[in-house]
């Protein structure tokens, strides 16, 4: 059944105080609650509590035990009929953590107990109004065997700890901040702890702690350092101070997502906590910093101000992703000279936009397309999407662009002034921003902008440029097209899309590639942000001496697709000269897209695959440009991802795309061989001491890219270099670079020997073994039989989400040659079905691997449809997977 955004009704009760007692045990945990309710309406109202899999032991109202005929117990709801305005409900219920494989609610990971409550996990712990607009103060007592569970953690401050009889002990925690139950957490188990005390801006002392498996504390240094940076950064950039005496992060081996911002007790997937140079790559280091930042920033954007209902999820997620992106960019740029800092920030932007294009653009054109604030859902767990998160962050970023840094800060201050301590909506956020925007632009509002929250789909912006040499006048016309997205295409009447408010940043270059000044309304601009609010608008720029080359959508100022019929020569010039590093990268990518699409066509027609010499020359120029940082060069010289390309083919032909991309890489590797070799040796860092900073990581990225091109181009020296790099590596980034080169580009004994060697060496490091599975799952030579064999490997298990992702998801989603076969599709459906019995949320993510199946070539389409129907026919089938599959089949 479907829940609709517009059906929101406030809860008829307040619940200011909650007391919980947990008698913890992995097999059977008893939870006792004492809930202090206050009616908010004049008349009596039934009190409805949510519960899932929670046998009731007893229930009492104001101290009177209730008989079964005094309440109603349905599958997922417990209804009481109180007759006073305030009353206390006491409930005792049980749950079974060790049997809970969903990893929602209270569950076991390793030897320890953890909780995950967002979005609707608290109802698996105790009967409760499980909705974010009910906010309470919590007092929590944990009781457990002391030898098994020496640490007992929950939100807030520890009030007291007691030794009990029979080797048991207890701890009581009190959280002074009212919170919705999705921010509740408890952890019990054996940990090592790395901690640091810091002084916050106002001079308060705060204890920061990172807990992880005993023995892994040496791997938590980076996470703790990142947390310290995050606390300082939020003070400096947004004036937001830590409001707790103690802030804890705990790493769990089994975790459905990245991490969770429970108040004062963040629980993390260990993949986003543990790092040392031997086991983590540069990418991991950056990801840890980003996720630590993300969860910490939620303390204000999410926890202090939370969501009224789950349709508002992007209120906290879009905003917090924007904040973590800015944090990462500032950390990368920190300490670098201005030009290099600008490049470092651009690298982060490029990576974020690449993610958006790989994950969100396909989503926005498929059966799960939804606005960043969805209108309806069947299972909220399915809406932790790239649209809510990544497009949501773009929508926040556009407001930042429209208001400017100072204006955005003023808007955010206003947002907290209005809403601190409450549960609010996306409209409330835009209203706060609008108060500043209207002050800056008298008579203008964000009314048109609000449509970004209502409309799904990626807008297209068409650009027309006209130059009048006699008048030295340039006329720029932008028009926007917003097509129905996903199942909207099948709605009758079709939804009509309205124009959006699109900040569109442009610059102009002269024919030699030098920047032209744009004179507009009495001001001179290098980059001008045009505000496109209508279907079609025109801007006129005078004093333009020659026909300009436009640099469009600088810094990716809006999440749109630009249509502009520039020539390849113009793109090549932009790729070599544009002063906006993002647009410069973009021009190179667009050239590559054109070249690759021509190759795809040739593959399909069975023609010879020919690469334009001009294209190779652009790549040569980028590779030889000594002004570029290695990190930037690594991005500029990487071809668009298969997924990005696939979106541009119709019908979608994954195998042809993979072949085209591999061929272009081979040709570039071959044609530029000596340059790649020089770049490889230049970027090599002989000092040996590993540092994860932007500069060092950039060198490693370029070095590993060069190695991949050398392998692709079958350079004589390449296999030796790769072997040497693998066996001599002093850190995991180099080791993986060497190993991937061996495994991805050849099917030789040396490759499989290195793989065995790697396994032998790292078998006791689960996060490293995940890499081992991933590498094999994504190698182009890997076929379904290898995958089935790997599933039999003693280290493989479906129960650990990281492991399942490392093999199954990586194969199904990132190995086009391997998966797009009849057997591959059958394997995929088998795994969705198997996972659904264990963990519906994870199964539903895998179920989305071929969301866009109706746009595939006919042979694929038929098989996938058949497999989708097979999944749909399963009984039982989780609500999570049922929603995904029914939408996929409706399209
Ligand atoms: N709020 C968390 C974060 O983005 C994600 C929690 C998602 N939980 C889930 N069961 N889907 O930081
Ligand atoms: Zn988040």
UniProtKB/TrEMBL annotation:
Where's the Peptidase M1 membrane alanine aminopeptidase domain? 222-438
| Domain Aminopeptidase N-like N-terminal, first and last residues per copy | 100-183
Name one process (GO BP) from the record: proteolysis
Q: Keywords in alphabetical order, please.
A: Aminopeptidase, Hydrolase, Metal-binding, Metalloprotease, Protease, Zinc
Q: For this protein, what is any one GO molecular function term?
A: metallopeptidase activity
Per the UniProt entry, the Enzyme Commission number(s) are 3.4.11.2
* Catalytic activity field: Release of an N-terminal amino acid, Xaa-|-Yaa- from a peptide, amide or arylamide. Xaa is preferably Ala, but may be most amino acids including Pro (slow action). When a terminal hydrophobic residue is followed by a prolyl residue, the two may be released as an intact Xaa-Pro dipeptide
Name the top EC class.
Answer: hydrolase
Q: Required co-factor? A: Zn(2+)
Domain (Peptidase M1 alanyl aminopeptidase Ig-like fold): give its ranges.
Answer: 457-564
Name of the protein in its database record: Aminopeptidase N
Organism whose genome encodes this protein: Paralcaligenes ureilyticus
**Which lineage ranks, top first, belong to the organism behind this chain?**
Bacteria, Pseudomonadati, Pseudomonadota, Betaproteobacteria, Burkholderiales
């Amino acid at each position: 059944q479907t829940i609709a955004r517009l059906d929101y009704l406030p809860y008829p009760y307040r619940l200011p105080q909650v007391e919980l007692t947990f008698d913890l045990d992995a097999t059977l945990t008893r939870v006792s609650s004492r809930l202090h309710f206050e009616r908010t309406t004049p008349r009596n109202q039934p009190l409805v509590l949510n519960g899932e899999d929670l046998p009731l032991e007893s229930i009492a109202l104001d101290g009177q035990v209730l008989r079964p005929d005094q309440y109603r117990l349905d599958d997922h709801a417990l209804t009481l009929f109180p007759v006073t305005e305030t009353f206390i409900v006491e409930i005792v219920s049980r749950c079974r953590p060790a049997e809970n494989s969903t990893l929602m609610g209270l569950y076991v990971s390793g030897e320890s107990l953890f909780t995950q409550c967002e979005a609707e996990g608290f109802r698996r712990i105790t009967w409760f109004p499980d909705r974010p607009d009910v906010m309470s103060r919590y007092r929590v007592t944990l009781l457990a065997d002391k030898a098994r569970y020496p640490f007992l953690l929950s939100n807030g401050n520890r009030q007291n700890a007691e030794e009990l009889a029979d080797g048991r002990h207890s701890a009581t925690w009190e959280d002074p901040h009212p919170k919705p139950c999705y921010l509740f957490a408890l952890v019990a188990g054996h940990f090592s702890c790395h901690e640091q005390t810091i002084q916050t801006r106002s001079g308060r002392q705060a204890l920061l702690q990172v807990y992880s498996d005993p023995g892994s504390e040496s791997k938590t240094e980076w996470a703790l350092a990142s947390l310290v940076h995050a606390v300082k950064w939020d003070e400096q950039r947004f004036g937001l101070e830590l409001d707790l005496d103690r802030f804890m992060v705990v790493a769990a081996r089994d975790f459905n997502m990245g991490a969770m911002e429970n108040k004062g007790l963040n629980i993390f997937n260990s993949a986003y906590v543990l790092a040392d140079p031997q086991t983590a790559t540069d990418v991991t280091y950056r990801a840890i910093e980003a996720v630590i930042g993300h969860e910490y920033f939620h303390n204000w954007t999410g926890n202090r101000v939370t969501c009224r209902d789950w349709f508002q999820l992007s209120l906290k997620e879009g905003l917090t992703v924007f904040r973590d992106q800015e944090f990462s960019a500032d950390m990368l740029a920190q300490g670098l000279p201005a030009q290099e800092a600008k490049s470092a920030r651009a690298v982060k932007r490029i990576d974020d936009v690449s993610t958006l294009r790989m994950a969100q653009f396909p989503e926005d054109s498929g059966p799960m397309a939804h606005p960043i604030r969805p209108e309806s859902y069947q299972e909220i767990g399915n809406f932790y999407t790239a649209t809510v998160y990544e497009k949501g962050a773009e929508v926040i970023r556009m407001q930042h662009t429209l208001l400017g840094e100072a204006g955005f800060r003023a808007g955010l201050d206003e947002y907290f002034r209005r809403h601190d301590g409450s549960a609010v909506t996306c409209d409330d956020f835009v209203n706060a921003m609008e108060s500043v925007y209207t002050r800056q632009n008298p008579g203008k509002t964000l009314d048109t902008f609000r449509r970004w929250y209502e409309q799904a789909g990626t807008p297209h912006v068409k650009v027309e440029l006209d130059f009048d040499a006699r008048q030295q006048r340039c006329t720029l016309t932008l028009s926007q097209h917003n097509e129905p997205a996903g199942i909207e295409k099948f709605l009758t009447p079709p939804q009509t899309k309205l124009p959006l408010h699109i900040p569109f940043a442009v610059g102009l270059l002269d024919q030699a590639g030098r920047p032209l000044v744009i004179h507009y309304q009495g001001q001179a601009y290098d980059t001008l942000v045009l505000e496109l609010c209508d279907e079609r608008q025109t801007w006129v720029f005078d004093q333009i001496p020659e026909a300009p080359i436009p640099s469009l959508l600088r810094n990716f100022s809006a999440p749109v697709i630009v249509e502009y019929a520039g020539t390849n020569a113009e793109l090549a010039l932009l790729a070599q000269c544009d002063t906006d590093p993002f647009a410069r990268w973009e021009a190179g990518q667009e050239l590559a897209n054109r070249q690759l699409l021509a190759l795809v066509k040739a593959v399909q027609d069975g023609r010879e695959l020919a690469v334009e010499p001009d294209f190779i020359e652009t790549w040569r120029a980028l590779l030889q440009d000594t002004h570029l940082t290695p990190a930037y060069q690594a991005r500029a010289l990487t071809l668009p991802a298969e997924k990005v390309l696939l979106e541009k083919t119709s019908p979608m032909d994954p195998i042809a795309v993979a072949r085209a991309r591999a061929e272009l890489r081979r040709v570039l590797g071959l044609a530029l061989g000596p340059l790649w070799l020089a770049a490889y040796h230049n970027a090599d860092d002989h000092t040996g001491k590993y540092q994860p900073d932007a500069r060092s990581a950039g060198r490693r990225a370029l070095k590993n890219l060069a190695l991949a091109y050398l392998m692709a181009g079958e350079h004589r020296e390449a296999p030796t270099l790769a072997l040497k790099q693998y066996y001599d590596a002093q850190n995991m980034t180099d080791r993986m670079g060497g190993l991937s080169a061996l495994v991805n580009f050849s099917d030789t004994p040396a490759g499989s020997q290195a793989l065995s060697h790697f396994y032998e060496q790292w078998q006791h490091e689960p996060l490293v073994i995940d890499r081992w599975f991933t590498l094999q799952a994504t190698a182009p030579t890997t076929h379904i039989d290898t995958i089935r064999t790997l599933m039999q490997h003693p280290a493989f298990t479906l129960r650990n989400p990281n492991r399942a992702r490392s093999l199954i998801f990586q194969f199904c989603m990132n190995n086009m040659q391997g998966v797009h076969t009849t057997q591959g599709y059958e394997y995929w459906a088998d795994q969705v079905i198997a996972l659904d019995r264990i963990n519906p949320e994870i199964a539903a993510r895998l179920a989305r691997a071929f969301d866009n199946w109706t746009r595939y070539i006919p042979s694929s389409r038929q098989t996938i449809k058949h497999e989708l129907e097979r999944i749909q026919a399963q009984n039982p089938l989780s609500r999570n997977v049922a929603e995904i599959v029914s939408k996929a089949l409706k399209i």
